[in-house]
Amino acid sequence: MEHSIAKLAPEFIAMAQTNAKKSRSSRVTGKNDNRRSARVSVEDKQPQVHDTAHIKARSSPKQKRDIDPPGEQAGSLLKKNQGASAKIAMFTKEFLQGVQDAILQQECNKSSGTDCSRCSATCSDCPEDHQSAQCRRPLFRCLDCFSAFPLCRECIVSEHGRHPFHHVQRWTGTHFEKHSLSKLGLRIHLGHNGQPCSSSIQPPTDFVIVHTNGVHHCSVVYCRCQPGQQHWKALQLANYQLFPATVTTPQTAFTFQVLDDFHRHLLASKTSAYDYFNALKRHTDAVCPDLVPDRYREFMLVMQFWRALALLRRAGQAHNIDLILKHRRLGSVAVWCPACPEIGFNIDESVVVWASDLKYGNFRLQMKKKNGDPDDRPLVEGHAYFVEEMEYREYLKKVEGDSEVSLCSNLKVVRQQDRAKFKDTEVSGVVAVQCRHLIYLPQGMVDLVKGEVYARTDYALAHALGMEGLRQQWVMVTYDVWCQYSINLGERFKTFGPEWAENVQRICGAIPKMHIHGHNSECQIKHSLVYERYSGMTYSEGIESAWSEQNHAAASTKEQNRGHRHDTLDDFNGYWNWTKVTQLSSALLNQYARYSNMLVRYQKSLKRISALYSSERIAAWQKIYDNEEKVKIFKKSKRAPTKDEVYASLVAKERSEFGEVGYLHRGLELEDRLHALLNGSDSEVEDDYETLHDDLCTWRSQQIALYPQLSPLPPIDEENLAATSLRLPSSLSPQIRADLNLVNASHTEMKLREGYAFNHLESLKLRIQEWNGERHSSENKKKKGKKHQIQVNARMNNLKIKQCAIMDSYNPDQLWGKDTNHHFRLGDSSRQDPWFWYAGKITDDTTESPETWKEEDDRVRWSREKAIADRLQEEVEILQEESRRMKVSFTKMKEVWEALATQEGLKPGYSEYAYCHAALYLTLSERCLRDWESILNKTSDAVDE
User: Is 441 among the domain residues?
Assistant: First the structure.
């Protein structure tokens, strides 16, 4: 292979191999099944039960088991292949009724008429309604404390000094009703560890505080020790994990917990803020949610800041990480791919670099036309995944009229600007750039207007690659309209400066493996990833999964202003990237295991195919493979022969001289004809009975002339030709063959039968090739109308009949072969042709030259198999290098965060946060090493077996 891909670090491999050997040496011979029993929680699987009287106990058809079996049986209690009825049957009517009773028992006051269980104080002289502040009756209970019993007023308040947002209820004498800790006298004191400030003489401020369990009315008392500081009230709230809705005179705040909780739900499930806040209102008052203070707008504003602060904090910008990572873009808050090359960080500048980027447009992430704030700007503009807006607009003013329309792709991506679906949209979608590990690149996303325009895509690509992209020796780009997009790429890139104009030739490209089937025949060869050298097994369709995830948020982001929308999508992209980073180690190594096994199989397959032909022919094919254009290598240029040409060729081949070989050859032919007669097989021309009789008589006379020692021979029964015994040497025992001096004849017959076997296989392959060719032709003719389709169906049926005589004796599941008339199809790299494509003998080109079309088919088949083997070899090497870079990146990031933690003059919490992140990257680094050990163990086990 003419690869220059960096090899895997020897010390990294050695470390993993050493640990793997230690792991293998500790194993017991044979596979130990260390299965841990795990009790499965089924709480979330229970149906909602409103009236257990209507629930009938369901009996399982299988043998009954205990609901809670001991020990090792617990793990097998709920199996994946169990039906829902078997799982539900365990929850009997009696058990569900018991759960219902337990739920309803919570509604009674078990402490009614007793003293407070906490203070044991008595209450004998308060009014009957027990509304006095001095009442010590246990009338109040908390719904959020675990297993809480009713307490008196004073005890319930003292117990919740650190839990001011719990829900409490008051006993009315007949039932519990909603109450408030604030009404019971609870005050939230800011400063002094929650104790009252001695300098505070102002009355408490009424606050609306939103927490994860609802909206609360609270009384807040500020600390007045240092009131002169700017925004001192808002900062006091922030120090107590309360984010104020304003910074001047706040009266609404959101707990850090509710902001973090919604942030997690937003990222994981794309829950809208509107739905989330409505759920909080319902949690507060399910009967009259409209009476709950509506703080939805304030919540949206605060969340925008919360997300921006999270991006800055996690990217290290709060710690001035740019002072250490000077090779990265200033102020970047993007999550970078640890496996992609960063020169000077995870790869040496002297190493030849391979990089891969994917580009696609998404037309679901739109933005409506509406009267919004024209000055609304993203909070992290240009530092995450969207480009800087003002510079982008200035660029568009120069190039907006330079539109190009694709003339090739049936997808017509560029022509989507004329579609009605973009009506009333200010932004019709986005185009984004990802690396081959499906991680969004910094500044690789731009807005689109009425479809994809190459100029906008150019801007996203140029800024995604950035100046560090100019340092790569070459870059692979895949795009669903690369065939048209690449035509004037160099000319368009001159807009970005002379350095890009000089280096744009380093960019090569291809079309993703699924989208390429929407292109014409030439594109499917010239721009196929399978035929693109050094592209590995990249399939380039992974960004579609990213779009399907982002599309869940389209309904909410299209209603947002431009700046808010960019911040939201930047946040989603960061979450997507971090998810991929944490899963990257196992993903790469699973691919490594898969492609390593495929490589071994394909190398054997290619070796078997090459063994069928002479070394001179393979050398000639190799020369074409190495030097010619892709269209000449992987596309057949010769047509299949006509029926008359095939017939004439077969007649010429079957000529042979009279003698022992000719006699045995005709005997085998007669054996086939008798076999067909016996089995009633159909043929193209039904064998004439008299002709067969005459041929048998002629052959019998030749037999007696050649081997008189066989006399007397059994007569030929004219009424039952199928029962005729030919008395070929193979039908006699070894002793009789020796006695009759037929040993040499039996050897000749064996060689002829071997030749017949190979001929049958060649005929089988020929029929499959004819079938593929006819099917390829018919697919085009069917489009011309019903008349052509009827003719095509007739020819296909006739071809099926011709195949029966050859194919009936073979396994029908193996009667196929990759169609060289078609271009590479999805799944071709994961499957190999059946065994008979590799059976045969080397043909001596000097004595016999095969049909031109057959040789062309063989050459294309060989070239395509070699292309897959080469891509697999490249992929294995690429994955080795990517795993090495990933391990180095995690280790370097650990060192970076440790350096940030030891900076001088850090505020409280900054150092601890940095050490926490250093530990996080240490965990990722160790996991990477463990994954390598696992792969090496599996590889060793496979070798041992």
Answer: no
